[in-house]
Design a protein that fits this description.
The structure is a single chain. The protein has 83 residues and is of the alpha+beta class. The chain has one domain. 51% of the residues lie in helices and 14% in strands. The chain has a two-stranded antiparallel sheet with strand order 1-2. The longest helix has 17 residues, at 2-18. The model is unreliable at 1-6 (pLDDT under 50).
């Protein structure tokens, strides 16, 4: 029973990562996963893979540099929670 509760809590937490657009905070229609190139190619100095999960709304997803802006916002947001 405890395992189910922990799993549900983790799913709820992960869904919260992409329920709102990371750029404008409107309801997200797209869930995105971004992987750091160096860590994916096992060139990370820490040996860890940096993965970011975030949401984008339709309007922000249509912006030409939306992915770069979203990645930058996700990195900034993760730095706030880690430190």
């Amino acid at each position: 029973m405890i395992y189910t509760n922990v799993r549900f809590r983790a799913i709820k937490e992960i869904s919260g990562m992409y329920s709102a657009c990371i750029l404008c905070e409107r309801t997200a229609t797209i869930a995105a996963v971004s992987l750091d190139r160096e860590s994916w190619l096992r060139e990370s100095k820490t040996g860890k893979i940096r993965m970011m999960i975030y949401g984008l709304c339709t309007a922000c997803a249509d912006i030409p540099n939306a992915i770069e802006r979203a990645d930058a916002a996700a990195i900034t947001e993760s730095d706030k929670t880690v430190h």
